[in-house]
Amino acid sequence: MSARKAASDAAPGTISDTVLRQFVGYNMKRAYINVSADMSATLEPFGLKIMTFSALAIVLENPDLTQTQLGGALGIERSGVVVLVDELEEADLIARNRVAGNRRSYALRATVKGQALWKKVEARVRLHEARLLANLTDDDKESLRAMLHGLGSTEGSSDEK
Amino acid sequence: MSARKAASDAAPGTISDTVLRQFVGYNMKRAYINVSADMSATLEPFGLKIMTFSALAIVLENPDLTQTQLGGALGIERSGVVVLVDELEEADLIARNRVAGNRRSYALRATVKGQALWKKVEARVRLHEARLLANLTDDDKESLRAMLHGLGSTEGSSDEK
DNA sequence: TATTGTTATACTCTATAACTATA
DNA sequence: TATAGTTATAGAGTATAACAATA
């Protein structure tokens, strides 16, 4: 017999992915699938999804911003913002306030209920991330966060020299 | 005046996301959006997508594996594997070979064309990742890759104590 | 004319469930 | 009965394009 395993009758777990695991992108995709699933499960009891959670955070930090600005901050289109804001408004977590002198846009602001919910959710998410990253030192966690932040900013380094 | 800016008439770029950026998960999502867009653009000239690229890699590394095994390695359902394998077979990059003694499953194997394409694509993707991570030291790149690998394995640390 | 919010639509990715042909 | 592959379908998430109201 050769050293090559007969993959077709081997157990599922014996399949290797050494080549793919050399790429940062592949590891990032697999990591994000796990992290986002955990995050979704954490938010679900609060009636939030990843994007409504994110939108709520931006609105709290930037009171009276417009929907277009919210979309810019979240990196999504205006049409997508409508859905998020609808959902948050429906849950009475943020309000579409009219702004004097400009009837085209809204001034988005978190409600008292939205502020209260945020405090609870934020604490819960922090706890959850701490568990998720329990294997890492504090330095490693901060290093990971910072490197991802660098990769997640506006530029994509696509082709510009 | 106070330190609070009037967000509603500020330029779009002035919206802050300091709170969200504290979370690893948010940075990972934003990073993955950028990285995957870059990756897709890199693969497109080769007629590959992220998942067909990944599937090709797994098949090359595990000749004669089954579709179910491929799905296990990629973390997707069997029904999704069919689409990927259809696409790779259509492009003559892998073949669904019959296996003696079991007419239920296929033995997947890369074609000569698939092997040749892989060499070119792999080199191109490596180059691309190097550019994407150009701001990081070699140690940082490896550290990032390893931490993501740790987060992207089977366990999700959801609720088990 | 340009901008803000909105709606309708479509596309990508993936899971679920039901089916077939084998075992 | 159980398994491998397949098919149909549905859902989530998001983008594109066209539109109305307003600037």
List the helices and strands and how they pair.
The structure is a homodimer of 161-residue chains.
Chain A: H1 24-43, H2 50-61, H3 67-74, H4 78-90, E1 94-99, E2 102-110, H5 112-132, H6 138-151
Helix pairs in contact in A: 1-5, 2-4, 3-4
The structure holds a DNA duplex (23 and 23 nucleotides).
Describe this structure in words.
The structure is a homodimer of 161-residue chains. With 161 residues, the first copy, chain A, is mainly α. Helix content of chain A is 55%, strand content 9%. In chain A, helix 1 packs across helix 5, helix 2 packs across helix 4 (78-90) and helix 3 (67-74) crosses helix 4. The first copy, chain A, is elongated. Mean pLDDT of chain A is 90; it is low at 1-13 and 156-161. The structure holds a DNA duplex (23 and 23 nucleotides).
Based on DSSP secondary structure assignment, what is the total number of beta strands of chain A? 2
Biggest sheet record of chain A: 2 strands, antiparallel
Number of helices of chain A: 6
| Largest Cβ-defined interface | A-B, 79 and 79 residues
CATH superfamily of the domain at 48-139 in chain A: Winged helix-like DNA-binding domain superfamily/Winged helix DNA-binding domain
Beta-strand share of residues of chain A: 5-15%
**Which CATH class of the domain at 48-139 in chain A?**
Mainly Alpha
Q: What is the average per-residue confidence, as pLDDT of chain A, rounded to a whole number? A: 90
Oligomer category: homodimer
Strand order of the largest sheet of chain A: 1-2
**CATH architecture title of the domain at 48-139 in chain A:** Orthogonal Bundle
CATH-defined fold name of the domain at 48-139 in chain A: Arc Repressor Mutant, subunit A
InterPro entries (chains A, B): HTH_MarR-typ, MarR/SlyA-like, WH-like_DNA-bd_sf, WH_DNA-bd_sf
Domain HTH marR-type (chains A, B): 21-153
GO biological process, one term (chains A, B): response to stress
GO molecular function, one term (chains A, B): DNA-binding transcription factor activity
